[in-house]
Structure formats: C-alpha cells, structure tokens
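Can't paste images in this forum, so I'm doing it all in text. The chain is below; anyone willing to post the predicted structure tokens underneath?
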Amino acid sequence: MADSTPTFRGSSTPLRVFVLNWRDTRNPEGGGSERYIESIARRLAAGGHRVTVLCAAHPGAPGDETVAGVTYRRRGSKLTVYPRALQYLWSHRRTPDVVVDVQNGVPFFSRLATRRPVVVLVHHVHREQWPVVYGPLAARFGWWLESWLAPRYYRGCQYVAVSEVTKRELSGLGVRSEHIAVVHNGTDRPPETPGQASTPTLCVLGRLVPHKRVELALHVTAQLRDTVPGLRLLVVGDGWWSAQLRREADRLGIGDVTEFCGFVTETDKHRLVASSWVHLAPSLKEGWGLNVMEAASHGVPTVAFDDAGGLSESVVEGVTGRLVPDLDAFTQATRQLLSDDTARHRMGAAARDRALTFHWGASAASFGEVLQGAVAGAREARVDPRPADGSLAEQIDLRSYEDVRKVR
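Text version of the structure:
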C-alpha cells in the first residue's frame, strides 16, 4: 500500500500540539479511536511537529513516555482523566499552539484551561449507544451533554469528523457545516499472510463491549452452521463483555466452532482476518469502520447494517460488501457470500482496491492542514478553508496525495 513515510521539509514553523483523548492504543480498552489518534500523531511528529497526548493511566504503561516521537502523559482513570487532563493543560497552558479535544461522547471542556485554538475531533455521536451502556438517567444525561451542551460550549471551534455521516450528525446537533472538516481513517500496509482458510470462516474484529453486538455474529453462525459445512467463527479482540459472549456461544451450541482469540499481536490479527471468507460488522454504531478497511486490505468483504453510522460509508453496498436493514437480511447476506465464490471474490477484490486509496499519510496531511488553519484563524480571526503555501500538505512527501484527495 502506498503510504510513504512523512518527511518534514521545514517550510513552516512546526506546531506544538496537545491531544486530549481518554485512552491510548496500549490501554486494554483502546480501539479504533485510539488507533486513529496514534496514526495521525506519529506522522505529524515525523513531520517535525511536537505532539503530546494526554490520556488515562493504566496498568503496564508508564505515566510518561515518548514513542515514535509522540509524548504520552497518562493521568487519572477512565473518569478522572478528564479533570486530570484539564489540570495538566492549565499548568502548561502556554505550551501548545493548538489543542485537539477528542470527544468520545464526553468532551474534555478544554477551553476552560487554555486560550489556544481548540479543534474538536468526533468519530460519531452516541445517541444509540448511551442507553445500551448506561442506565436511563445516566444515558439521558450523557446524551444531553453530548447533543446540547457540547455544541454550544464549542461554538465557533473547528471540528474534525471521520466520515460524511458523522459530519451530517454534527450538523444536526447545531454545529455549522462549514466548521466541520472530514478526515477519513487511513489503512496500514498489510503484512504478507498465508491467505484464506480452506473451510468457510467468518470473523468479527474489535473490542468486546455491548454496543459492538457480537451476539448477532454468534446468532448468524448458529443459523448457518447446519447448512454451511465446516463453518467457523473467529472473534478477534477482547473486552469486559467477553464472558457474556462466551456463555452465549455455549447457549447457542456453537462453542465448538467459535474461537475467542482475545487480544492478539498485529501480525496475528492480520493473519486471522486474512484467513476469513467474510468479515461481520454487527456494531450498533461506528464513526467509520477501521476494521472494515483492515479486512478489505486482505480482500475480505464485510456485511454490516445500513443504519450503523459510518459503516454505510466504509462499506459500499453490493461492491465491497453488503449493507442490510435487519438481522434476517444480515444472515441471508452472509449465507450468500459464503456460498457464492464468484460474488465473494469480486467484492473482496473491489474492497482491496478501495482500501488502497486510503492512506494514513494523506489523513495526517489533511489533519495537519486543519490544525494550521485553526492556528492561522486564531491569529487572523478567520479560517481559510484552503491550505496556504507552505502548509503541512507540502511538508509531507506523499505519493499520489493529489489523487487521494480527489477520491475523498
């Protein structure tokens, strides 16, 4: 995959960037949001920018470390990371040129602690997920916080969404469309793998939490096992919902054909995904669907729901996979792909071709332009939607960058 290493050319002053995110990729609960931040941050750092990520502490990780040029400051827990990050930001309020406030349902309210420009990163809004994860009162409060208070508190700030779907959702909450830039996820170059298994294999890739709805993949497997000889399901990933899923697999009588792989290395993850015939994405909501593109990079098509946010954008219906309205259709689409080699291989090839157009280097260049624009806008009281001469896009040596921009 063409994603060259960014090379800083020094054509403009490097930025000092603080990123406030609740987790990092080493956190056991880390997922696609953290992968996005890490991938962007590392490339910005490689381009000469000074990037500091403020996130929650967790066992096995030092409070302070620098990895691939990115400095991590881990403070607090899942909940206390918010005040601890604000405390750190306040004590270093003159250090950053720009602050990235990653809003995973709950904002950091970083404007309380800095007068520097704030860029708000949103993967998706959580209307559907609040009641799944929390009780009625907490869910109502969380949704009020996200849908009413945050858009008003951050009024006038630059936003970044990871898909056009998320941009529309933010616009629906009152964020001005012209203040929202879309910066898609990239896709890493996949390692060489042995390829697909000789027997029909399904996979689910991601954190094991309720709103990922891995139970639906289990139900699909239970429905198909008697008519698809040799069928197996790989559940790649882990999380606090794992025990419930294992019990459900046993209840459905598919424990013998379901492999819970847990946390695996990047190499093993790619090997497992590449061995699959079809990737299932039963999630309630995604901002984009990094797992979809990882599967696609190995020529594996995805079945997902058409109302699950960015999944309707990362999967192209009938071309790179299937988008369906309900569980019956989900099961039927999976059955058809398993039984129709021609359609499966055609969609897998199209998925691989499309995955090649998404580059982390291009994503980092676009994100950097947004940051440069926010800083320039703060200085000049305006935001220029086009990058000026000497912008980050010109500092990063990226093959086919202009072609990728056209695809977006």
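Residues 360-380 form the longest helix (21 residues). The first strand starts at residue 16 and ends at 20.
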